Amino acid sequence: MDGRSMIPLKDIVPSAQTNIKTQFILLDKGRTATEGQNKTCLALVADETAAVHFQLWGDECDAFEPGDIIHLTNGIFSYNRKSLVLRAGKRGNIEKVGEFTMAYVETPNMSEIRWAPDPNNSKKYVHEAVISTHSRIFPPLA
């Protein structure tokens, strides 16, 4: 384990760096799609502070199920086809560390926020607007 502390989902921001260390519960999983040689699927994940869309690749699509608690190291939060997703990326790692027992919220969804470059620091992003309070891909059950 590296020395960095875990980041709550509400504190993640878009970045080209793979440095996100966090833990969340998988709430829902979309259809598996094939992009060239790669199999992908989108999931809705959350912790006690926020929710986000999480991109699973290849064998990860079959390895994780709703209810799994997942630990992510060296993750990246960036755009994939105009959609902001959290993912492990090439250097990241995800592993199941438990199941079912984790407090979570479904709002805000960090993937449903429009981000803009920080006028004071072009390497950082700031919230510009909320596109939707809930996931538009995984609507709330209520």
3D architecture notes:
There is one protein chain. This protein is mainly β. The protein has one helix at 60-63; strands at residues 20-35, 38-46, 51-57, 68-80, 83-87, 93-99, 113-118, 121-130. It has a five-stranded mixed barrel with strand order 1-2-3-5-4. Strands 7-8 form a two-stranded antiparallel ribbon. The relative contact order is 0.22. The mean pLDDT is 81. It comes from Manihot esculenta (Cassava). This is OB domain-containing protein. One of its GO terms (molecular function) is DNA binding.
Distance between the termini: 39 Å
Q: Give the DSSP E fraction (strand runs of 2 or more residues).
A: over 45%
Decide which structural class fits the backbone: mainly beta
Count every beta strand, where a strand is a DSSP E run of 2 or more residues.
8
Uncertain stretches of 5 or more adjacent residues: none
Rg computed from alpha carbons, rounded to a whole number of angstroms? 14 Å
Largest sheet: 5 strands, mixed, barrel
**Mean pLDDT across all amino acids:** 81
Taken from the alpha-carbon principal axes, the silhouette is globular
Report the CATH C-level class of the domain at 9-31 and 38-107: Mainly Beta
GO molecular function, one term: DNA binding
Keywords: DNA-binding
Protein name: OB domain-containing protein
GO cellular component, one term: SOSS complex
Essential attributes:
about 140 residues; mainly beta; OB fold (Dihydrolipoamide Acetyltransferase, E2P); two-stranded antiparallel sheet; 8 strands; globular; OB domain-containing protein; DNA-binding
